[in-house]
Amino acid sequence: MNKSILCVVPVYNEQEILAEAIKLLHEQLTKLTAGNFRIVVANNGSTDNTGKVADELAQTYQDTVIHEFIKQKGRGNAFRAVFAKYKCKIGMYIDVDLPCELSDLRRHISAIKKGVDLVVSHRVGSRPLGRRAMTLSLRTLNRLAFGLRVSDSQCAIKAMSPDAINILVNSCCENGWFLDTELVVMVHRAGLSIHEVPIHWIEERFTGRASKVSPLHDMAEGAKAIGRIWKRARSVVGKHQ
Ligand SMILES: Nc1nc2c(ncn2[C@@H]2O[C@H](COP(=O)(O)OP(=O)(O)OP(=O)(O)O)[C@@H](O)[C@H]2O)c(=O)[nH]1
Ligand SMILES: [Mg+2]
């Protein structure tokens, strides 16, 4: 059956929380969309039982949850493969640790329905100092490098129109965390509309899940990524001049 809303959940070795996360997301999307949605679990070669759990979920929620296995590693490859394969009117993605009040997703859906191309979340609520510093540095870099005025390009909860999905699939190359920023930059470059909505941040919904973030290392990686994105964004604009 064709569903208007596609919500992609990228996963790598998430056997402990995947089932509970999909149950919560499924419940919330059922309320928000009257069942007009599909969730794709985008799994890149997990080495634990994530694939098995995802297969069981696809059995439990037939027609609504799909397990997609993507050979090439990386969150960027996962998003590009899934959004190229499944057509939809509204594309969304959210990390499996579901780090916000899920009822806030109502705002994302409603903005795309009103004609916005990319909805970027703006995190409200307490976050560790190191992470706030990363967000602030990136905000400044985005403004200087791209003239981009968004508060939080890295937040991994976004919604897209079909035009923005096209940009994600065909113009974005980042494969890791900085795909989020690249998407915002490329959509901005293409002259599509961007809207920010607040979300109530939940830093640790699933207790005991180890964080992979290391602020100093990630800030250095972020600066390198901005350099790469800057080069690509310039050449994209060059083609249209
Ligand atoms: N498909 C895919 N998903 C990935 C890959 N690496 C990480 N992920 C998923 O990407 C999402 C974000 O990863 P997180 O570990 O939550 O990263 P984070 O939110 O920046 O930081 P912490 O939550 O503090 O660890 C999660 O849903 C991961 O399972 C990958 O190579 N492929
Ligand atoms: Mg996370």
Short key terms for the protein model shown above:
single chain; 241 residues; 8 helices; globular; 17% strand; Spore Coat Polysaccharide Biosynthesis Protein SpsA, Chain A; binds guanosine-5'-triphosphate; 2 domains; binds magnesium ion; alpha/beta; seven-stranded mixed β-sheet
Question: Can you put this structure into words, describing what you see?
Answer:
This protein has 241 residues and is of the alpha/beta class. The chain has two domains: 1-98, Spore Coat Polysaccharide Biosynthesis Protein SpsA, Chain A; 99-241, Alpha-Beta Complex (Spore Coat Polysaccharide Biosynthesis Protein SpsA, Chain A). It has helices spanning 18-33, 50-60, 75-85, 105-113, 129-146, 162-171, 179-189, 215-240, and strands at 5-11, 37-43, 65-69, 90-94, 118-124, 157-160, 194-200. Guanosine-5'-triphosphate (GTP) binds at residues 10-12, 14, 42, 44, 73-75, 78, 95-97, 177, 211-213.
Quickly describe the structure.
This protein is α/β, with parallel strands linked by helices.
What is the topological layout?
Elements: E1 5-11, H1 18-33, E2 37-43, H2 50-60, E3 65-69, H3 75-85, E4 90-94, H4 105-113, E5 118-124, H5 129-146, E6 157-160, H6 162-171, H7 179-189, E7 194-200, H8 215-240
The structure holds guanosine-5'-triphosphate and magnesium ion (MG).
